[in-house]
Design a protein that fits this description.
Helices cover 32% and strands 17% of the residues. The protein has 211 residues and is α+β, with helices and mostly antiparallel strands. It folds into 2 domains: 1-43; 104-208, no CATH class. The strands form 3 sheets. The chain has a 3-stranded antiparallel beta sheet. Strands 1-2 form a two-stranded antiparallel sheet. It is globular and about 50 Å long. Keywords: Endonuclease, Hydrolase, Membrane, Nuclease, Transmembrane, Transmembrane helix. This is HNH endonuclease. The chain crosses the membrane at residues 15-40.
Amino acid sequence: MESSMPEKLSTGAKVGLGCGGGGCLTIAVIVIAAFISVIVGGAPDETAAETVSGGQATTAPASPESTPTTAVPTPTKTADPGTALAMLADLETKGRAPKTGYDADLFRWRADVDRNGCDTRNDVLRRDLTDITLKLGSNGCAVIAGRLADPYLGETYAFDRDPNNIDIDHVVARSNAWQTGAQGLDETELEEFGNDPLNLLAVSSTLNRQT
């Protein structure tokens, strides 16, 4: 590997050739000082040098002393802890509206909202179940077997070609959402709510269907 030392010397030599009188001494001192600084502090670390042999290049690992350090980035400032509470305090609260006009089909549950070729139920089953078996020819979509650790009961259930023992629970129920503001949503927003994975959990059907 070439160092920058020859360039520094050749530059000094060119300057020295054109000087006269005491100027040469000054220039010589500058050149010598530059030369010393290169030897003491500016020379490249030979332990990290690239060597070429037989047409193949290999790089030796740098010594611990020459390993560069990276500054720790300053974390982005996050919102103050009281921000969410302050926003909640400003929300207008109203009583529960009547269930008039409610229809679960308005939420288009099981639609393929993310356009991945698979309905929401199977998306959630693949997310929440373990040891899953997928139906052949379903393009990796349909779950026909697996095991569920129920998040509510803490028990494990086998899901084996029987869709009746595992339900997908809307944590915030659609009927509850309808009476607390969802009736003001448009068709697209209702569909997004009905298929929002953050509001969906695979659970035991026995518990989910209790009224």
